[in-house]
Amino acid sequence: MRALVINCTLKPSPQPSNTEALAATVIEALQGHGVAVDVVRAVDLNLKPGVQSDMGEGDDWPDVHERLMGAQILVIASPTWLGRPSSVAQRVLERMDAMLSETDDQQRPVAYNRVAGVVVTGNEDGAHHVISEISGALVDIGYTIPGQAWTYWHLGPGPGPDYLDDDRGHGWSASTGRAMASNLVHTARALEQNPLPAPPS
């Protein structure tokens, strides 16, 4: 079983990423279940604006799309900015919009029988809103979202330290991340044994 983690930080490599640091706890837990994990730092790529799987010359999305098709588990990891997902997360979701019209050889939407979860960081309120926005988009595309398939870290409203600067709350976020990983893996295995059929015509 394979998982793809798309880190939607605004910080290009090699800058430290708080979102990457929290996602690492989920990655470790997924690997503990025997899952092979691939990571994409979306801001490092040229993801052209659009809602097609290939926007032409210089577009790096086709490679990400191929990785999505090879993964049974998807994790979107995003910081919170102004109480919303990052602009990079929005770009990723817009590019995934093309999957709505793509089907497999059994005429099922290509996201069917794949599961997804969300990781959120930020030093202000808004994590649940970001989780809801990203999860809602992924459900529209066809992903299955297990119960409690998310984790987040923040220290309440207003400005404050980043995840990498403060150890407070890390234990809860890591514990919730391990539960998230377990729920993703077991739901993916259940769908593998009992896949969703194509939608009725």
SS element count, helices: 5
Beta strand count: 6
Secondary structure class reads alpha/beta
User: Can you write the helix and strand succession as a string?
Assistant: EHEHEEHEHEH
What average pLDDT do the residues reach?
95
Radius of gyration, CA atoms, in whole angstroms = 16 Å
Task: Characterize the main sheet.
Answer: 6 strands, mixed
Low-pLDDT windows of residues: none
What is the rounded distance between the termini?
A: 30 Å
Query: What share of residues are in beta strands?
Result: 15-25%
Percent range of helical residues = 25-40%
Shape: globular
Concise account of the structure shown:
The protein is built from five helices and six strands.
Give an overview of the whole structure.
- By secondary structure, the chain is α/β, with parallel strands linked by helices.
- The chain has 5 helices and 6 strands.
- Strands 1, 2, 3, 4, 5 and 6 form a 6-stranded mixed sheet that branches.
- A hairpin with a 2-residue loop joins β3 (73-81) and β4.
- α1 crosses α5 (170-193).
